[in-house]
Protein 1
Amino acid sequence: MPSVATRVPVAGTWARARQRFFRLAPADESSVVLRHSRIYILPSRRGWAMIATLAIMLLTSLNYGLSLGFAITFLLAGLVAATLLHAFRNLAGIEIRPLAASETFAGGRIAFTLSASGGERTREAIEVRSAGTAVAVADLPAGSAATLRLERAAPSRGLLALGRVTLSSTQPMGLWRAWSYVHFPLAGIVYPEPEPGAPPLPRGAHGHDASAPGMGEESEFSGLRDYQPGDAPQRVAWKAVARGAGWYTKEFDGSGGGGPISLDWAALPAALDTEKRLSRLTAWVLAAERAARPFALRIPGAALPVAADRDHRRAALTLLAMFPAERRP
Amino acid sequence: MTALPGRAGRRARSASPLLDTTQVRWLGALIVCAQLPQAPHLPLWIAAFGLLLVGLRFALLRRDRLRPDTPPARIPSWTLVLFAVASALAVRSSFGYLLGRDPSVAFLFILVGIKFLETRTVRDGTLLVALASFLLVTPFFRSQSPFAAFAALPALLVLGATLDALARAHPGPPPCAARSRRSGGPAC
């Protein structure tokens, strides 16, 4: 699910002008159609080379009075001018909208998806990039939308914004580079990195052994959900896989697996610093989810009641991801 | 402002993508089309030598295609400097002087061939397009007849096609990918 930050209003004449030219603030609506006011065009390196050549050809024709030299020079200049218009038309009218931001754990990669449609014309070789992402090149066929995927590394936890996106194209003939900025308030959540080799879950309220097998006999089967990478193998619905029906994971009612547990910030060893604590709590949330045990989470400034469904897990991980870095308990 | 064109251009300069076979062929066709109208006005050995250089590159391309497992033919760049100096001296001895309109045109004629022989990257291709466009004006020093205008037309058409082929460069396509792209049409 995307987590969409709020739009930032831009105030002041100077700030508005800067915003209009460079789109530095994430102030775009949910869908942007590229119009002339957003499209910039300058000659590419090849374009500059052609313009310089044309200037030399013009000088030569002037110097030696070559009428046919003028004819060729102006014909080629017309070609360069015509490609300017086509470079504009390749971008103009593209509708681009934000789709989603993925969620990941720190150290992983986060993916943003945008949808672009070119309307009635086919658009060739549109390059899309944002800071820190590789360039995605896409041809947009006429009358259909393409999904563009921008991936970047997520080194630390918190909210990671997509930032300003540049759409550019040098088609046709590579003489002009047309580009546009769009800046959507699209951000993905980077959860803390789960502590590798974290200690087992703390003891449950009912005194069950923490290392008891995750899925006890008393847990009740409640349904199937889509398989997510990382689900425990013993919970995969192998019968469905064998039938060829797809990958599903069996879900169990929260009461199973050894009773509710409480994940408490204050109960962690005092030697751990903030990031280590978040990392361990993240690992425990994942372990509790794998073991189908309901859990409650208490961290300074926030608490979650006992629950066991996926929304609860996401809420817990989000709390841990957004925990302020400098705050000390 | 991470995406200003200047910075992107500088990055492109450090690693200009290599030309694929289709692009080299278009460049060769453009140079032949630009050389041919000029050739009748030059001493025979210069015209033959300039065209021969282009033919040599096509022969090397053909050899690479017939034997795909052997490494592609490479001509070391220092031999090309020798080529250029030697042809400058030869042009000078043929005309009696080098710094003038006609010997310069003759030298440019050979230089385009030499440059084509060592062309590897798309940036070289851009330079060749510029040289070929200028070469296209030089026959008019000698003749501005309707026939001269007509002779320049094929080069103009091929120039547009070459620019288009150069713009379709995808970063580092292997030769087999280039072949499948040709058969698959421009959609890929």
Protein 2
Amino acid sequence: MKALNRPLLYGGLAVALVVLSILSLSIGRVWVPFEAWFDPGSDPRWPILLELRAPRTMLALLIGGALGLSGAALQGYTRNPLADPGVLGVSAMAALGAVLTLYYGVAALAPWTLPVAAVAGALLGVVALMLLSGSASSMVSFLLAGAILSVVASAGVSLALSLAPNPWAVAEIVDWLMGSIEDRGWPEVRMAAPLIVLGCGLLLTTGRALDALTLGETGARSLGVSLKRTRWVLAAGVALAAGACVAVTGVIGFVGLVTPHLLRPLVGARPGALLGPSILGGAVIVLAADILVRLAPSAAEVKLGVAMAAFGAPFFLMLLLRLRKGTA
Amino acid sequence: MTRPVSLLTCVALGMSLGGRPVLRDVHLSFESGTVTAVLGPNGAGKSTLLNCLAGLIRPSSGAVRLDDSPLPDMPARARARRIAVLPQTPEIAWPVEARALVGLGRTPFIGARGLTTEDEAAVDRALAAAGATDLAHRSVDILSGGERARVLIARALAGEPDWLLADEPMTGLDPAHQLDAVSLFRAMAEGGVGVILTLHDLSLALRVADRIVVLADGGVIGDGPAATALTPDLIATAYGIRAEVKAGLHGPVIEVLARL
């Protein structure tokens, strides 16, 4: 595949991000035009901008980037274009971790326990994935392992729901599970950002190893790549990045699936070259989706996680059909 | 280009896979600057021997050494700079450009900044040596089997290694490209590279190799200069076939007569 000029690709994605960020700050129930931005204090719309729209936009950028990169790294590692933290059950495991803290009420007493539990759940998920799929990491064994994890995690969540002490706990869990960045503020940004930045930093170091894995595990080892190190860095990176996303937004699937797939032809299919653009691309997709969700003419806002699933599931199906024909 | 002479040695090498002995008590020493063909029937342990010599798997018993360094404990990057491996059925997971695939051969050399101009020059030389220059900008998923084989050979050359360990590199090549590969391996050996190939085509082995090692049931049953190593008796023991060694225009050729 012929690769697009990299500065052009980065430039295009960056321009899209800037335009979308401006839109995201302006659009909502209340239109906040550009001139109101530079009038802190006197304009009544200023708090909307600063306390609602700005953290929301920031979160969309952070989780979009984290999910896009996690998907790209997982696809590179598994040599499987269907890999994604959501599809492989990693997000579901993170959600289980987070739900447990909600269920036991620990999250209310000590808010930091929720992201920690989410990251721990995600880490457990990635490690279990690698163990379940074994060394003969075929596409099928990875997807099966992911399916098993998803089932286990959703069973755990259902159990927590059915045993919930009171209807408020149920409502809290359900609302959180649906995946949204509505009504999130700076505390959530402060909670997620360090974890996401650290996770993304780890994942970005795996580029050369992922490139070498194009030649399979034996090929990569013959090129001097340490698979053990790659595996741990990848597990920690995905757990931090995807776990932190789940902690603040609930499960938002398919970003990690769609983003690398759309960008792959533009970078010449090299998995290492896909990592950087997937951060920007994921951010573009989530930000765009979040703006669309706000524009939807319904009484209550459509949850972002629901919207992504509605868009992502048919995409996944299409990818599967194309893979069967061997053209993806 | 001349290189210092390098030695790749295995002593009392034994390997079991899933409880089944695949190699037993193999003592071999290879010197760089020569082409060695490893022959033997299917399941004789040729690929396992190659993987042990490449330091990719840890033998069950015995030792492998590259000059003074024990394999597979040598640091992976240092090892990968010296030994290039061409596996029998190479996986190519993504439809990358052929040139990018060949560039992967530079992996043990590149730092955080990616391929340097020096790396790019090595990639160009490797593409030219493998006769794959005109394939450089094609996507690997649309290459024919033979074209892909040439690109993969270029990938192995790109690291400009001291050793090339290739498992069935001639499979999938048409006769013309087989001859090209023969000249390529000969030229590498003359440049000081140690080339170890596993092959099934006996006449091709005679043509390319300085030395022939014959494996059967995990043990060495024949080892010697290519001109004299293959005798009808040895071929009969190894493969269970009756064959004659005849004088051909370019040295001996093997005529396979019948199954024993």
